[in-house]
Specification:
176 residues, alpha+beta, 4 helices, elongated
């Protein structure tokens, strides 16, 4: 935090728009923000960005952080609606498996290798060294192949390939 740095404030009681504030003073545990040099200053804790003078304020270090949070919330709500709606059968079992795998997947920077198993939708990831490679090429389009070798560390691993097929109808005009 430094004087002059911009922060972004969403006032959940006082308006819909995101407002830009400037850091006007920085201490060891708090900093102060203000909309303009002569306007009121608000005290904010550095460690959690909690505004002590206005509890309806939520502070963001960038406008993008705010927009990402909004997108995250709306996307999570939409996914919940889709899965819990009576029309959930529009989602195939394979799609649900992919969603589950993504949700359960550890971020790559948190995975330590070797690990017991890896799951990926489009590629193979070696459980020994973490090398990502083309699984289709590794199994040579043979869906019954179970043992492959990592191109990087040359260790053998077991692979369980899965393929999903989606077919859609075509109109008479398109067919001719």
């Amino acid at each position: 935090m430094e004087v002059g740095q911009k922060v972004y404030v969403k006032d959940y009681y006082g308006g819909r728009e995101l407002r830009e504030y400037e850091i006007v003073k920085v201490g060891r545990t708090y900093f102060y923000i203000s909309m303009s040099p002569n306007s009121r200053q608000y005290k904010v804790k550095i460690n959690n960005l909690a505004c002590l003078d206005a509890t309806s304020f939520k502070i963001y270090l960038s406008a993008q952080n705010y927009y990402d949070e909004q997108e995250y919330s709306s996307t999570a709500i939409n996914i919940e609606k889709i899965i819990s709606s009576p029309h959930y059968n529009k989602i195939t079992l394979q799609q649900l498996r992919q969603i589950k795998a993504i949700i359960e997947e550890q971020p790559k920077d948190e995975v330590t290798y070797p690990t017991d198993e890896t799951i990926s939708v489009d590629t193979c990831i070696c459980p020994y060294c973490g090398h990502e490679f083309n699984g289709r090429r590794a199994i040579n389009d043979d869906l019954d192949k179970r043992i492959i070798e990592c191109p990087k560390c040359k260790k053998e691993m077991e692979v369980y390939p899965s393929v999903e097929y989606m077919c859609s109808s075509i109109s008479e005009e398109e067919a001719t």
